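Obj: model holo form, ligand = 4-nitrophenyl phosphate.
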Amino acid sequence: MKILFVCLGNICRSPMAEYILKRKCKEKNLDWEIASAGTENYHVGKSADERGIRTAMKYGTDMKAHRAKQLTAKDFDYYDFIFSMATDVTHEIAFIAHSETRMKKVKLFMDELFPGKLQSVPDPWYGDEKDFIPVYELVNHVCEIISEKKQF
Ligand code: 4NP
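Output (holo structure tokens):
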């Protein structure tokens, strides 16, 4: 199973999902390949947001190795599933995909918890460090559901 998480900047929400799910896969002996990307190029090559790194570390998730990258058309061939962290992100993904076939691999992350409700993971980028806590907990909850899923 190859999974890609996508947000806008690839420094807050999708790296959190990547490193949380990587950790769960290790704990559960799941041989999955997990990565993340952003639809925008603003932060390419940069580390995850410091506030997110510190928050994740408090829960035992180490995101220090992360470097941001931008989603490319090739990712739609390589990955089995692409999880969009928010509805506005899905619009940007569709712009890069430029094809309905490619979009068949794209699922809304929050649909794993609230199917069909069109919910998004709140973007903590504009907030304070404390805003990363509920985001971490929500992403952790949904990643737990994904890691327990037998069929996609
Ligand atoms: P992310 O958060 O998409 O969760 O990584 C953002 C990070 C940076 C920006 C927007 C969202 N930005 O506009 O630079």
